[in-house]
Amino acid sequence: MNQLQTQQASVILAKKTLLQHITLYLSSGQLVALLGLNGAGKTTLLKLLAGLYPPTTGHVYLNSTELRRIPRQQLATQISYVPQQTHFEFALTVWDIVMMGRNPHLGRFQAETTQDRDSVTQALYRTDTQHLAQRWFHELSGGEKQRVIIARSLATQANILLLDEPTASLDIAHALSILQLCRQLADEGHLMLLSLHDINAALRYADQVILLNAGQLQAMGTPQTVLTPQTLRDNFQLHSEILTTASGQTLFYFDQPREYS
């Protein structure tokens, strides 16, 4: 089991404080939803946990070892960060892109092996993108592209996947498909940390919720304990009511407070 944690970690860039004294503890086998308004610090936190931003103060640990002490190539086999959008300068096939996930396992000028090809094939099947292997990436739909980028992360064999707004700009069907895939990967033992704007998706799919506001940790816990009408009003300026569907599913109905309408 992998464990990822921060202790009083802050990030200051260009004299601007982006995160303040964040203490978190995350472990494998969970889907964790990261919520907050734009500018709350979600992307900064993901990059901090991926080792892309060093903490200005405080510490980040992977299995009791500080991230800064882990060689970059080794870290890439344990933690994979998926940004909001991925662009490639050249035209590449889906197979080529997913094979990039094997780069941390290859030495300089080392050719791909049968094991590398098997890992890519397995990642394609797990994300239901095997039929796209020879397609050009730039020709895919938004949902297909997102699944391919997740496949690239799986090809690294990393146990921890950090996804920055993986459902952004996707239609409802593709967004649900991505969320269900992430839920499946968490159930298989991965640590999945997703920044989201869809509060009802967090309520439905997440085991834990992290709520950020202005770079500060407001709450962390189960969706049922963190996502309350008062918390949503305080952090999102939203009136909300809790509804229960005929199937027993709980969800929020939202309305803006009068002063924001």
Automatic annotation (TrEMBL):
Keywords: ATP-binding, Nucleotide-binding, Translocase, Transport. Residues 4-239 form the ABC transporter domain. One of its GO terms (molecular function) is ATP binding. It comes from the Bacteria. The keyword Signal does not apply. InterPro entries: AAA+_ATPase, ABC_transporter-like_ATP-bd, ABC_transporter-like_CS, P-loop_NTPase. The keyword Nucleotide-binding applies. Belongs to the ABC transporter superfamily. Part of the ABC transporter complex HmuTUV involved in hemin import. Responsible for energy coupling to the transport system. PANTHER family: HEMIN IMPORT ATP-BINDING PROTEIN HMUV. This is ABC-type cobalamin/Fe3+-siderophore transport system, ATPase component. The lineage of its organism: Bacteria, Pseudomonadati, Pseudomonadota, Gammaproteobacteria, Thiotrichales.
